[in-house]
């Protein structure tokens, strides 16, 4: 939820500043102080995901409570600092199963000694802001730093004379449009950022064959990055058909392959702050199969429909899922709608409304590619299009991956060690090392334009453990 907080601020910044500036004009006044109890509404912009989420928030500092509703109350979240030893958070969201449509369902998460749950303030602290110039007419830009001084953050005062970390942090914040609610949060994020860039530089000095970069996740804690994965392993047989080829001769296949060149892959998407990776892997595989079976038509299919509607098969919306559960739902309901028909991705659990739209990509079944078999996965890619794969993405090296062939010796490759779902769209060899070309769903800012080359050696990180494709 901390992540959401700073995104809020992006939304509110303009409003807040225009108020401050209006107050400043022609007089010398103090920065406003927010009431300890307030309500506010606005729109949360998440640029990478092309998301605009309307919200309404209540904040009650004396009672240590807050509530934030999204999309007109479709999803309601409560942060209760006084409930239980470490606070409690509640989420009320619509859940659609095979027997119920959009039943309001409450999910409770208790705080712990590691993460205490506190009320979320949406408005930024303006302590330290001063208005000293009577003619201030615009937001302070590079040329008019003297108008506002905000000493605790040193932002508008001496941006270049501070330490290297501060300099990098400022650059990072500008590049990714990050603003934090208050000085404390800024300090906390700077510390997380400092640890992350130390890690990034230290890995890069080791010349591992791949490099890390300071991407948009560099101010996030490991716990927050965990929320970006969201493959939930249930330990059951997935119901897939066996791979129909017994022996595959690797030498008879193209030495390298990339479905992007043929136009079978939609642009990289962003799951935002929602553990819906499973829906992106699934949808990528279906978009590819649809392309191959429908005269090379590339259409964007709807992740949101799977998030909203496939609970009955064991998926949990933004709290995780598995590809085969989405396939099973599609088999029962006769396909999946296009994004145009169903509506845009929301980054939240939403109301299921598939009954009102046409379902486009009808599937007839799904197949398990032979596990841990490099020629088999290569053949599957060439013959059947992009393949949904599960991987172990739990290492910090993955979060900050930028270039080269990713190989992480700490990675697991057993089914129960795989926590993220992605899409294999090709393969190849660089300097004698075989790799899989993998599309992620963490926006273009992550990795190599949203993609990663993952080593095929020793089934590293489990790319070859549970690959699946659909038949049409
Ligand atoms: C959270 O704590 C309450 C008691 O305060 C308990 O009844 C509930 O089961 C706990 N929920 C979870 C998910 O641990
Ligand atoms: C996929 O299917 C094969 C045989 O059809 C089975 O052996 C394998 O366990 C299945 N994989 C999963 C992840 O259930
Ligand atoms: C579906 O359409 C009907 C009639 O057009 C409407 O009454 C209903 O609210 C719609 N349902 C959803 C979930 O959008």
Please outline what is shown here.
The chain is α+β, with helices and mostly antiparallel strands and 472 residues long. The protein has helices spanning 2-24, 164-175, 183-205, 222-226, 277-293, 303-309, 323-333, 339-342, 374-384, 396-399; strands at residues 37-46, 51-60, 65-70, 75-80, 88-95, 103-110, 210-212, 241-242, 257-258, 365-368, 387-391, 401-406, 420-430, 433-439, 451-455, 468-471.
What does this structure look like?
Keywords: Disulfide bond, Hydrolase, Protease, Signal, Thiol protease, Zymogen. Belongs to the peptidase C1 family. One of its GO terms (molecular function) is cysteine-type peptidase activity. Pfam families: Inhibitor_I29, Peptidase_C1. InterPro entries: Papain-like_cys_pep_sf (IPR038765), Pept_asp_AS (IPR025661), Pept_cys_AS (IPR000169), Pept_his_AS (IPR025660), Peptidase_C1A (IPR013128), Peptidase_C1A_C (IPR000668), Peptidase_C1A_papain-like (IPR039417), Prot_inhib_I29 (IPR013201). With 472 residues, the protein is an alpha+beta fold. It has three domains: 105 residues, no CATH class; 61 residues, no CATH class; 248 residues, Cysteine proteinases (Cathepsin B, Chain A), CATH 3.90.70.10. The protein is built from ten helices and 16 strands. The strands form three sheets. Strands 7, 9, 11, 12, 13, 14 and 15 form a seven-stranded mixed β-sheet that branches. A hairpin with a 7-residue loop joins strand 4 and strand 5. Helix 5 packs across helix 6. The site of one 2-acetamido-2-deoxy-beta-D-glucopyranose (NAG) has 7 residues, from strand 8.
